[in-house]
């Protein structure tokens, strides 16, 4: 049982550090402290988040987890369909925004990336397609592998994604103003085809 508490704590630490390092007030302070080197902040932030995420996944894989129920093979294969769809959605989003979101664009000074409001593609159906794809894949994989440790992971990531999305919505409203508010009125936040 202690291992599950540690796992929950690690996901809490991930969410807390991820939110802190993305907070505007924190980035403003770091920008003043780092000076011209602040341009590398997003890249360092991404590498830190990736390292922490890999650490948590490795820890979770080492836990001897309890299966909550037995899933017949046919249902496991059926649950694999939305899992695959979620991975495809994630792949499309990561490919589209990789340079900007990862911070790797700082290593390619000739390739300019700027923040812009995107309402086309997957964003026509949901305002945060990457988060939707992530949650779809996570919960579908849970149906394939219904383990207690993985349930903790799914719940932790879902709660963090929901809270983080609400904070991100506020930042996007500040950044894009009336255009984003109009977008909010016409496109659902996390679940497509639902207002």
Describe the fold and architecture.
GO terms for molecular function: methyltransferase activity. One of its GO terms (biological process) is methylation. It comes from Paraflavitalea soli. The protein is mainly alpha-helical. It has one domain (2-186). 71% of the residues lie in helices and 0% in strands. It contains 7 helices and no strands. The protein starts with a helix and ends in a 9-residue tail after the last helix. The model has no long low-confidence stretch (mean pLDDT 89).
What key phrases describe this protein's structure?
195 residues; mainly alpha; 7 helices; globular
Spell out the blueprint of helices and strands.
Layout: H1 2-22, H2 24-34, H3 41-62, H4 73-102, H5 129-144, H6 148-176, H7 178-186
Helix pairs in contact: 1-3, 1-6, 4-5, 5-6, 6-7
Quick structural gist:
With about 200 residues, this protein is an all-alpha fold.
Q: First CA to last CA: what distance? A: 39 Å
- Tell the overall outline: globular
**What would the average pLDDT be, to the nearest integer?**
89
* Helix-strand sequence: HHHHHHH
Radius of gyration: 18 Å
Decide which structural class fits the backbone. mainly alpha
Share of β-strand residues: under 5%
Number of strands: 0
Largest sheet: none
Helix proportion:
over 70%
Which stretches are low in confidence, meaning pLDDT under 50 for 5 or more residues running?
none
Number of domains: 1
Helical region count?
A: 7
Pfam families: NnrU (PF07298)
Organism: Paraflavitalea soli
Main location: membrane
Transmembrane segments: 43-61, 73-98, 130-163
């Amino acid at each position: 049982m202690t291992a599950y508490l540690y796992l929950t704590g690690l996901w809490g630490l991930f969410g807390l550090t991820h939110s802190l390092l993305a907070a505007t007030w924190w980035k403003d302070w770091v920008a003043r402290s780092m000076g011209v080197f602040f341009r590398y902040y997003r890249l360092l932030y991404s590498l830190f988040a990736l390292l922490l995420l890999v650490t948590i996944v490795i820890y979770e894989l080492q836990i001897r987890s309890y299966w909550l129920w037995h899933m017949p093979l046919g249902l496991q294969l059926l649950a694999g369909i939305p899992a695959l769809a979620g991975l495809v959605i994630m792949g499309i989003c990561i490919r589209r925004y990789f340079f900007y979101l990862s911070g790797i664009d700082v290593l390619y000074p000739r390739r300019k990336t700027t923040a812009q409001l995107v309402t086309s593609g997957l964003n026509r159906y949901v305002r945060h397609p990457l988060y939707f794809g992530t949650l779809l894949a996570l919960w579908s994989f849970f149906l394939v592998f219904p383990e207690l440790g993985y349930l903790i992971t799914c719940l932790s990531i879902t709660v963090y994604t929901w809270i983080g999305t609400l904070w991100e919505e506020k930042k996007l409203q500040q950044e894009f103003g009336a255009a984003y508010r109009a977008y909010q009125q016409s496109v659902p936040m996390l679940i497509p085809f639902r207002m």
